[in-house]
Amino acid sequence: MKKLVEVIAKALVDNPNEVVVTEKLEGDEILLELHVAAADMGKVIGKQGRIAKAIRSVVKAAASKDDKKVVLEIQ
Asked: Which residues contact 25 (CB under 8 A, 6 or more apart)?
């Protein structure tokens, strides 16, 4: 999951070298934290959060085959 989020985020931003994804396991839940440069925050979130919602949907679909719950936080 971490690699998937990293690839998607790097394709969206102007500063791909500043994209950092951390993964934490909390029981049956995976917490992914996406850190991007402040200037790229709008590109990752999108208008009315549409891009962020789309990224979460893709990650959720990928996690469903492993029966895992994934939470994506964008910081």
From this structure: 31
Q: What's the token pair of residue 70?
A: 């994934």
Residues in the chain: 75
What residues have CB less than 8 Å from 66, skipping those under 6 apart? Answer: none
Set out the domains of the chain in order of their start, with CATH numbers: 2-74 (3.30.300.20)
Owner of token pair 């893709």: 58
In angstroms, the CA 44 to CA 34 distance is 10
Taking only the tens place, the pLDDT of each residue in 16-37 is: 999 999 999 988 899 999 999 9
